[in-house]
Design brief:
This protein is mainly beta. The protein has 6 domains: 96 residues, Macroglobulin (MG2) domain (Immunoglobulin-like), CATH 2.60.40; 122 residues, Sandwich (Immunoglobulin-like), CATH 2.60.40.10; 98 residues, Sandwich (Immunoglobulin-like); 82 residues, Immunoglobulins (Immunoglobulin-like, Sandwich); 85 residues, Immunoglobulin-like (Sandwich), CATH 2.60.40; 178 residues, Immunoglobulins (Immunoglobulin-like, Sandwich). Helix content is 5%, strand content 43%. It is built from 5 helices and 52 strands. The N and C termini lie far apart (92 Å).
Length: 726
């Protein structure tokens, strides 16, 4: 459906400008997330204008463009700016003329997203008395979270004994409300079906016998709400039981042999991201010629989400599904359906029987760390796989159908050439498959301006950006506005920027992504001067180009865990950007703390791989107390001053080490020793002895327990614990 609005602007006579021409503007309606075309005509030849888009949530986006020599602009509005459904206003703002054209258009919601839609329950349990109700809500949304109105929703339960409302229709917020009751105790899994699509979230509720505690049902081996309720009643902390995976960043229609990026998130019983998930997942598909990401084990640094850049391709036309399962528990899964259409390079399906072939990966460039090699063999049952001169595996057995699969170790960057050979007769070999592994972000950013790096206030100038390799996207921030540059010639990206109306030196900060999804940011690539030198003395806002060391990290905190300590801190500030953080720490064992050792060497080092502000240190023993500080390092390797020092212990640390091991009542600070430190004088008239000598003399870390044993053996019934002061 298209709806065009035409606006006629009256002709005005402005001094020094002449007769301004009439302007018309038309924009097509579109679907959320899809681009739309617009046409502006009646402008002056090569006239420069600003385009302003008013979105339903009140935000605005301003773009710059120029009419052709016929006074016409025909361009697209990117779908990135049109993800919200609702009414939009689009304007063409003309400089110096005072005339503008404006029109409205509509963005309608897209199709049902089984992953963005969700079911919420207000209660987790209720008596199984057929009258006590558990309220629930279903929110039906598209892939961008827009509500879908007037959709029929059918509710289902995993147990026939439960009572649910019949088909309901979503309201203006895209939601329906209902209740579930039951007369039979047990755990029920609720599902919602919307237009033959089963929503991904399936919450669990517990019905228990009246008078019984709810955790008495379903708490043994269901891994469901019974465990959840039990954890809330007995366990400290919050349970994050992963029940499903969501799949995002894939369009509904994809092309054959198109390299796709997929984002996978582990979801807990409430539908949130399970940030502590560390399981292993496996991909599968109804397309038996699809190229899939290798098995992946989540790390704590993933925080429950991982992006597989350009690692997925479909090769068979029609409706295909992408499935994800947890390797340890295939009941934990996720699914997405896509429509595969023709596109990309032609499919190469060999004719006749091939004695030995590699099916995946296909030749090309990848960002992967490991590759999954699959193939078929009719000439042999044992396979040898090689990567150039390197033997990957020998004696790889095929299954009954003659298929084989192998996951490579971590691949280094560069070219890899895979080939399969029959073990025992290497004259039978597959074609070689050459891939390029590239995990390096683009570098050597180049900036070009037209007419120059010094521009007048309010003027428009052309900006060109390039790097050391082909790019897929470039976004630059200038004057408080984000600009998406468009692909140009020779791999460069270009766009029009508007100079602010205030004189000053303004940095251009760009983020570039190569064709494989490797991303890099230049915190301050260059500076644009608005106003010519001397025009606005005293008004120029200088942005220093020289590298300054970062500020010290602040608000450092330590959280105890099993055999580890997790650190959190506030990010440091820097003129060029933080590259990573260095965690420095020093650990003292129980005996050292008892003896009063306070010397902190900070001889242990961890470094974060990027600018994250959370890190855990492991392993740490239960009889140790550790002291931590953090140093920020910017992109030029300039280092900040250390943060304040915090101390941390494990969850298994004894009470006396948590309290510092100091039983004299004094507040001695870190380490639990006297304030004077090693070899100092604490005011008792005697000089303290060196802690190392003290440890050696007292028999090391077991001396205290030996004293206790002696006291128990020779005491008269009352144990007297003393601490010998030297």
């Amino acid at each position: 459906m298209k709806r065009c609005f035409f606006f006629f602007l009256s002709i005005l006579l402005l001094p020094g400008v002449g007769h301004a021409q009439n302007a018309w503007l038309s924009v097509s309606d579109t679907i959320a997330g899809a681009s739309t075309s617009f046409r502006a005509s009646g402008l002056l030849d090569t006239e420069k204008v600003q385009l302003q888009l008013h979105r339903p949530d009140g935000t605005e986006i301003r773009l710059a463009t120029q009419a052709d020599d016929q006074g016409v602009i025909e361009e697209d509005l990117f779908g990135l700016h049109l993800q919200q459904s609702g009414d939009y206003t689009f304007e063409v703002l003309r400089q110096g003329i005072g005339l503008s054209a404006s029109t409205d258009f509509q963005v309608i919601p897209g199709g049902i997203s089984a992953y963005r839609s969700e079911i919420r329950t207000q209660e987790l349990s209720a008596p199984a008395d057929q009258t006590t109700k558990i309220p629930f809500e279903v929110w039906v949304r598209d892939a961008f979270g827009n509500p879908l109105v007037g959709k029929s929703v059918q509710m289902l339960s995993s147990r026939n004994e439960d009572r649910l409302p019949e088909s309901l229709v979503t309201d203006s917020l895209g939601s329906i409300q209902g209740v579930v009751t039951s007369r039979t105790p047990g755990v029920s899994v609720l599902s919602a079906v919307v237009e033959d699509r089963v929503l991904f979230t399936k919450p669990e509720v517990v019905f228990y016998l009246p008078g019984n505690l709810p955790f008495a049902v379903g708490s043994s081996d269901t891994a469901g709400v019974g465990d959840f309720l039990k954890a809330q009643l007995f366990d400290s902390g919050q349970l994050q039981q992963v029940v499903s995976f969501s799949i995002a960043d894939i369009a509904s229609d994809v092309q054959t042999d198109q390299h796709l990026t997929v984002r996978v998130a582990a979801r807990d019983v409430g539908g949130g991201v399970a940030s502590q998930y560390t399981g292993t997942i496996r991909f599968s598909s109804s397309d038996d010629r699809a190229q899939l990401p290798a098995d992946y084990t989540f790390t704590l640094e993933d925080q429950g989400e991982h992006v597989f850049y350009l690692s997925l391709t479909f090769s068979t036309l029609g409706s295909q599904t992408l499935n994800i399962h947890e390797v340890a528990n295939f009941e934990i899964s996720g699914e997405k359906t896509v429509n595969v259409v023709s596109g990309g390079p032609p499919q190469n399906i060999p004719g006749g029987e091939v004695p030995l072939e590699i099916l995946t990966p296909t030749p090309g460039a990848y960002q992967i760390r490991r590759a999954t090699i699959t193939g078929s063999a009719s000439a042999c049952t044992d396979i040898k796989l090689v990567d150039g001169p390197t033997v990957l595996v020998e004696g790889l057995a095929t299954d009954l159908a003659g298929n084989f699969v192998y996951q490579t170790p971590t691949l280094g960057e560069g070219t890899h050439e895979f080939q399969a050979l029959c073990a025992g007769d290497e004259t039978v070999a597959s074609e070689k498959v050459r891939i390029q592994v590239d995990r390096s972000p683009p570098t050597d950013f180049q900036f070009h301006f037209s007419p120059s790096e010094t521009v007048d206030r309010g003027s428009t100038f052309q900006f060109h950006f390039s790097a050391n390799e082909d790019l897929s996207a470039v976004q630059c921030s200038f004057g408080g506005t984000l600009h998406d540059l468009a692909p140009g010639v020779d791999g460069a990206f270009a766009g029009s920027l508007y100079a602010p109306n205030t004189c000053g030196d303004y940095p251009v900060v760009c983020t570039a992504m190569d064709v494989l999804g490797n991303e890099n940011e230049e915190p301050q690539g260059t500076v644009i001067r608005v106003c010519k030198p001397g025009e606005a003395d005293g008004q120029i806002n200088q942005f220093p180009l020289e590298n300054q060391p970062p500020s010290a990290p602040t608000n450092l905190q330590a959280e105890s865990g099993i055999d580890r300590v997790t650190l959190f801190w506030s990010p440091a500030l820097d003129d060029k950007g933080i590259d990573r953080y260095r965690i420095e720490f020093s650990c003292l064992n129980l005996a050292s703390i008892y003896q009063g050792e306070t010397g902190l060497i900070f001889d242990k080092i961890n470094e974060t791989p990027d600018d994250r502000t959370q890190w855990y240190v492991s392993p740490i023993r239960d009889d140790e107390k550790c002291f931590f500080r953090v140093v920020a390092i910017d992109t030029d390797d300039a280092e900040s001053d250390p943060s304040d020092v915090v101390e941390g212990v494990t969850l298994g640390a004894p009470d006396d080490i948590i309290g510092g091991g100091d039983d004299d009542g004094d507040d001695d600070g870190p380490g639990g020793g006297d304030d004077d430190g090693p070899g100092g004088d604490d005011g008792d008239g005697e000089k303290d002895k060196d802690p190392e000598q003290e440890l050696e003399k007292s028999g090391g870390s077991y001396s205290t327990w030996m004293l206790l044993l002696v006291a128990l053996l020779f005491g008269s019934g009352m144990v007297l614990m003393t601490r010998r002061q030297e």
